[in-house]
Amino acid sequence: MDQISQTGRAGVHKRPILRKIVRGKSFVDVGGLWKTLGEMVTTAVEGGASRVAMADIQAPGNEWWVKFEAHCAEKGVSGCEMIHVDICAPEGPSKLGKFDVVHCSGIMYHVPDLFHFLGNLVECANEYLMLGSVVMPDSIENEFGRLDFPEDAAYLAPLLSSSNAKIVSAYLDSINMKAAGLNSPASRGFFVNGRPIFGPWWWLFSGTFMSRLIHLVGMEVVEEGPTPDGRGYIVVARH
């Protein structure tokens, strides 16, 4: 069993974990294109990955792909595969293919269908899945009231009652985080032509709920915990 733990008082640091598990393995970063700030491809290369890829729903050749290519060149990374795919679509796994290590962060709360999203990621992961997401604290209490986020429930953000929406929005304001559809406008709404869209926040859940969901889809959680800034949660799971 790989010794991968990087949990401490400061939270889970996923880049050291990736460097430990990725040597000699294939790696894909799903949805990591946005602004290149959270991309993990260059970290996988540092860790000795045998093959690396970036997969994203962004249209081929758009500004974020161009910026990612420039970012890789700046870091001295070459040979990264670039895959245009909607990981939530039924054909997502066949278009993406299999990788030993699959990383996906910052996407989970934006997807309408959590089950297809997670099921497709699991299908593409030969060995490891590294999943990161913004999460809610176990409980929020402020001037608008109290709202709990238990391990066995998630809130559908667009259907929050007005009183609960005020509680969540005040919390997000307090940590300087904007959430489309909550404390920031969802410019396109939640549905276009009768179909749910990505972009707004669909789900609000705790880290323990997220971990239990990974167990539900059939993987063993080998490392988990809050991110260093306390806003997110990381789960590393293995088949």
UniProtKB/TrEMBL annotation:
- Name of the protein in question: Methyltransferase type 11
- Organism superkingdom: Bacteria
InterPro entries hit by this protein: SAM-dependent_MTases_sf
Provide the species name: Desulfarculus baarsii (strain ATCC 33931 / DSM 2075 / LMG 7858 / VKM B-1802 / 2st14)
